[in-house]
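Hi support team,

I submitted a single chain yesterday and got back a structure, but I'm not sure I'm reading the token output correctly. Could someone confirm the output below corresponds to the sequence I sent? I've pasted both exactly as they appear in my results page.

Thanks,
R.
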Amino acid sequence: MKNLLWLLPLSFILSACPFESKVPLASAPTELVDSSMLGYWYGIVKDGSDFFGIEALDISKKSDSVYAITRYGKAVKGDIILPDTAYFTGYTSYIGEQRFMNVEGSIELRDLKDRKSPKMVVSKIYYASAIEIYHDTLDVKTITENFSVKKFFNRPEDFKQAVSSLINQQKDVFDDQYSLKYRKIPKPQPLKSF
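Hi R., thanks for writing in. Yes, this is the structure output for that exact sequence:
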């Protein structure tokens, strides 16, 4: 039993995660890149325990309607510092008047069909977040994994309908732990060596 106690903190951390979908909320961008969203955004994550993290988003224009997003993160848990950098693309769409960012990432999975020589398979995943910009603040509210009893959507229209229906019923579909306010700051420059 003592050997399994280390799983308790891990299971708590994994219990609240953003919803990962095989499809975005919208199959294509609905507007051009918003220049006010471009830049370097800085935020601090705190979950109420001794965990906190520093996160920054570097958002640039990839095409006329697609953003390139680099997420820089550093999590601190007790005496452990965990650096984390991830690369995404994203585009905006709407549910009613609410703007959402459809964020595309990828995960690498091991395919164990051939046990003698397993292969690594890359799969696309999507996250969806409601976004709002106020002057120099970017408010990001990420859809939680528990927003719906249905866990898989085959078409963007079905995913959008599920989120729209719950929002119209005034249900909370957002994850507090993965919802942040970022402040726009000048991008830090690398230190020059001596």
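A quick pointer for reading it: Residues 19-185 form a domain with the Porin fold (CATH 2.40.160). Let us know if anything else looks off.

Best,
Support desk
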